Amino acid sequence: MTLTVDCGAGTGYELCQQGVNRWAKQTGNSAKFFESPNNSGDHLGVIQQQLAAKSSDIDVYLLDIVWPGLLVDQLVNLTGKVPAAEVNRHFKGIVDANTVDGKLVSLPWFTDAGLLYYRTDLMKKYGYSAPPKTWTELAAMAKKVQDDEQKTNKTFVGYVWQGKNYEGLTCDALEWISSFGGGAIVDAGGKVTINNARAASALDAAAAWVNTISPKGVTTYDEEASRGIFQSGNALFMRNWPYAWANGQSDDSKVKGKIAVAPLPAGPGGKPAATLGGWNMGVNLYSKNQEAAISLIRYMTGPAEQKIRAIEGSYNPTIQSLYRDKDVTAKNPFMGQLESVFTGAVARPSGPTKAKYNQVSQAFANSVTSVLTGKAKGQAAVAKLAADLSRIKGRGW
Asked: Which domain of life does the UniProt lineage start with (predicted)?
């Protein structure tokens, strides 16, 4: 039979196709591919539109780690359909994020956490022996290197990140706030916690980067815009996901062999924080090929395929044993060195806010944008956001 598979977009699309085709060859089936929008919000919109129409056009969907609670009633419950031994080899926290009301609605495909990329050649040139441990150190280092490099390269900047008003900004800003000790927007019990002085200070600190160590246009950047600047040799530091490592080491990269990765910095009195990301595979409840679709996602999320994706695309496995695999760590040294970053990543509050998470995330990103663009100060923004989130909460998440 022929399955239609949502293979995402961007740099991972071809790797996904290749994996699906390997499964098809082994099983005697065939596959067609759906290339979804690159923006995760638009991607979710397409899925929701399809599922609302009870469409069977796409059999397998790629799902962001924060979507299971939104889509639980329209995806196949995999509990009992996938052997427990297969499920249990994945990180427990990621399996938990894919489980809603006792239903396992998707299988972990790869995990993500925010990382700090930096130029090793420039660090050495300016006498820095280690990456910054705090945001204050990062700002000082970025300013010094930027000012000197701009004497010969006007386009050089100190730090690039994801400042566009979308889900990526939610991820970046959650890292700032958490690293300042300001909580996680909404706590595990569903209480709105964003209105605090540390969260406000984190937003004000980030706003100070705009048009100083980061270009004014950073408030329009997504992951690929940031990567493009860093990979072309025009930035000292970059916040991005692990996938950017393989791209940065490609033959056409101007920074090949000149980059390294570290945990993101900490705020005053806080500790480094990385937002948990990652993608998963679920089966459309309205698929006419559910058995084959489950076979496919078991294959795609298994150790052999995850190893290939780790080596060829720097996609972090969700299977813990692969972090000890010599082939994987040889190609991606940071995976072994920074394993704790991935296992201890901070989850967005999609669990406690369930079907209202998108509203929560958008309200948060809007508030952050108001601070980054100078329309509000941090304290006023978090106070207003707390009131907005309380209204969204209404009678409960």
From this structure: Bacteria
Domains by residue range for the chain, with CATH: 2-105+277-343 (3.40.190.10), 113-275+346-397 (3.40.190.10)
Residue 189, burial from CB neighbour count under 10 angstroms (0-12, 13-18, 19+): exposed
Instruction: Specify the 3-state DSSP secondary structure of 234.
Output: coil
22-68 pLDDT, tens digit per residue, is 999 999 999 999 999 988 889 999 999 999 999 999 999 999 999 99
pLDDT in tens, 99-155: 998 999 999 999 999 999 999 999 999 999 999 999 999 999 999 999 999 999 999
Q: Exposed, middle or buried: residue 124 (CB in 10 Å: 0-12, 13-18, 19+)? A: exposed
Number of H-type helices and E-type strands within the chain: 19, 11
At position 379, the amino acid (one-letter code) is: Q
> What are the residues facing 107 on neighbouring strands?
281
